[in-house]
Amino acid sequence: MSPVPVSNTDDIEPLLITMRPRLHRYCARMVGSVIDGEDVLQDALIKVVEARPAAGAIENPEGWLFRIAHNTALDFLRRRSRLEALRSDEEVEMVADHLDDVASREIASASLRTFMRLPVAQRASVILMDVLGCSLLEICEIMDYSLPAAKAALHRGRAQLRELAEEADDAPRPALSEADRARLSAYVASFNARDFDAIRAMIADDVRLDLVSKTRLRGRDEVSSRYLGNYSRASDWHLVPGMVEDRPAILVFDPDDPNGGPKYFMLLSWEAGKVATIRDFRHAPYIVESADYRV
User: Is the terminal CB of the chain with fewer CB neighbours within 10 Å at N or C?
Assistant: First the structure.
């Protein structure tokens, strides 16, 4: 990271836009989910906005943002009652070993579920250094750790992550239920056919839309005119039913790139046979990069 001091609220806004993908990458790996990671990130950004007026001049704004994101992720883990011991009484003088390019790529590409098997301190230190490229001093600042404790957490986390990555993951994966597949297939078929009247008939009167990183809308009329209206004028999408992190989802592909992966995805919830919520990640494409998805 290359800190550039900021001194007022206006200065932080461009940095938030630039940093959002990296902050999400950290949050997602800390909590083991790209979807929950976005929730944590949104909570962290609210805290940033609330804390900014009293923060004064910030010498290392990126480190300040990561520290807020780190603490917000820990709060999330505590709420899920999955937080492990953060501190070790042992202060080990250990030099962080240098990784070759192959080892660095292997760590950076480890699945979110693999990262979740690390103790929190080890997980955070490995993500910060080997995924996001932070220095040891930046890790100490973000995690509020001494240098020996950060080195120890990093060393142990790397060693354990290598062991975990070698284990076979043969756990059965859940499949879409017949009900979910039928509902998603009907929605997707109408959307791909550009039959937006049929889509309007599927959504509830008080439907809630979260167009992540862009806007939120509520009510069938507003969602129909603005959200569906924008999709009707675009041609860069093709929808396919699937799963994201074992949740029913809609994967969105580029019709001009048949061999490419999904550009982003949508999540729907249903109440009384109607679409009650829509969460669309069109404006947050970085989220799908680390997502565990399948058609």
Answer: C
Structure tokens at 120: 């929190």
Domain contains 2 = no
> H-type helices in the chain, by residue range?
9-31, 34-55, 61-79, 101-108, 112-115, 120-126, 136-143, 147-165, 178-192, 196-202, 220-222, 229-233
Same-domain status, 50 and 189:
no
Give the orientation angle of helix 61-79 with respect to helix 34-55, to 10 degrees.
130
The residue range of the domain holding 182 is: 178-294
With respect to residue 62, please indicate whether it lies within any of the assigned structural domains: yes
If you count DSSP H runs as helices and E runs as strands, how many of each does the chain have, helices first? 12, 7
pTM of the model: 0.79
Residue 262 lies in a domain: yes
pLDDT of residue 16: 92
Residue 4 within a domain? no
> Does residue 195 sit in the same domain as residue 234?
yes
CB neighbour list of residue 95: distance below 8 Å, 6 or more residues apart: 151
Instruction: Report residue 160 as tokens.
Output: 């354990």
DSSP run (H or E) holding 276? strand 274-280
CATH number of the domain bearing residue 259:
3.10.450.50
Any idea what the Cα angle at residue 30 is, between residues 24 and 31, rounded to 5°?
A: 90
- Are 15 and 158 found together in one domain? yes
Backbone angles phi, psi at 268, to 5 degrees: -120, 150
Residue linked to tokens 């959504």: 203
Rounded CA-CA distance 4/123 in Å is 27
Pairing label, strands 274-280, 203-211 = parallel
pLDDT band at 56; cut points 50, 70, 90: confident
